[in-house]
Amino acid sequence: MARTALDEIQERVRGRVVLNAPMDRLTTLRVGGPADLLVYPEDQEDLATLVSFLTQRGLPYFVLGNGSNLVVRDGGIRGAVICLTEGFRGLEAREGASFRVEAGVAVRRMVRWTVDRGITGFEPLVGIPGSVGGALAMNAGAWDTEIADRVVELEVLTPGGGVEVLGRSELRFRYRGLDLPPGCVIVAAVLEGEPAEPEAVKERARELYARRKESQPLQEPSAGSVFKNPAGAKAARLIEACALKGVRVGDAEVSRIHANFIVNAGMATASQVVALIGMIQERVYVKHRIKLEPEVRIVGEWAKGKLRVQE
Ligand SMILES: Cc1cc2nc3c(=O)[nH]c(=O)nc-3n(C[C@H](O)[C@H](O)[C@H](O)COP(=O)(O)OP(=O)(O)OC[C@H]3O[C@@H](n4cnc5c(N)ncnc54)[C@H](O)[C@@H]3O)c2cc1C
Description:
This protein has 311 residues and is of the alpha+beta class. It folds into 3 domains: 3-83, Uridine Diphospho-n-acetylenolpyruvylglucosamine Reductase, domain 2 (2-Layer Sandwich); 91-213, Uridine Diphospho-n-acetylenolpyruvylglucosamine Reductase, domain 3; 218-299, Uridine Diphospho-n-acetylenolpyruvylglucosamine Reductase, domain 1. 27% of the residues lie in helices and 28% in strands. The protein is built from 7 helices and 21 strands. Strands 6-7-15-11-12 form a 5-stranded antiparallel β-sheet. Strands 1-2-5-3 form a 4-stranded mixed β-sheet, covered by helices on one side. Strand 9 and strand 10 (145-146) form a beta hairpin. It is globular and about 55 Å long. The protein starts with a helix and ends in a 12-residue tail after the last strand. Bound molecules: flavin-adenine dinucleotide. Residues 28, 62-70, 84, 103, 128-131, 133-135, 137-138, 140-142, 185-186, 216, 218, 222-224, 297 line the site of flavin-adenine dinucleotide.
């Protein structure tokens, strides 16, 4: 990014700005090169200033949540990365069992908040290490439920800097995704659960977290499930049947605990992770004739001058 553009962003934006931000430290899988620029807008006005400036200048931007569903390539991200986890942390009760939550709030905090108030419907999300913005963009879910089931409306900032409120019927959620026009940033949502007996909600959250702990490698760096479940099948079962648990490319390893997780067993690079993804897809295809589709989002650029393994 040109120096003048950087200077202008630093002059205009009130929030924290980091140059050459190390994406391996900002993602749960712990791989990836630096982003040219990382900005944490303080509030909606700050975000609007930043996004409209970038749009006017034709500069690319990427929205980062908690980085728990990302594989950032080793060359890092060109342009700006915008992260809402410092400025967008509001969470307030609305009528009945509904509430408004800002995109930077951790899913973990939101679930605890609902559980404490005897609001049921969010317990299946317990243990998902994302932000609310990321959970909405990914339509995160577990145990046959997804966050889309709970959405009343979304507040979305458009590339021009204006905010639109989109009702549930205007939103196109799909399995692990939400179709929004390019460049849109989710800033907040109104979500709705159902009133319930607080002890029962607490117990259900406890039980679901225990099940997650038992079946997932929570102590190791990962990006969660690598592949979407194909219709009528479980990706983990298909991978396990190919005897791939524990198989490695460099330090990228198919988890021995959950076959649909790739863990960073030390100093893995994105190139190794992507090579392992390709290897799994090939083996599963040969054995089951099913093409697994990544659930993780692979973003950024390959390192210049480095030989990259075929994607
Ligand atoms: C141990 C572990 C367990 C997991 N378990 C589950 C699970 O049970 N179910 C599940 O669905 N996922 C699971 N995940 C994956 C991940 O946590 C979820 O997809 C989560 O919702 C991603 O949120 P994030 O804030 O980390 O998003 P990021 O990974 O930072 O971003 C993901 C995508 O969302 C976009 N995005 C983020 N914020 C915004 C915003 N404000 N506006 C517009 N776009 C945005 C990003 O651009 C990117 O494309 C797991 C991950 C780990 C590491």
